[in-house]
Amino acid sequence: MRQAAIDILLQAAVPAKAYLQEIETLFRWVQRKIRYTKDPYRLELLTSALRILQLRIGDCDDMTVLLGSMLESIGHPVRLVVAGYNRNNPNLFSHVYLEVYIRGHWIALDPTMSYPMGWQAPWVVRATMPIHNYDRVAPTLRGTIDHHRMRERSQSGWMLT
Question: How would you classify the pairing of strands 105-109 and 143-146?
Answer without folding.
Answer: unpaired
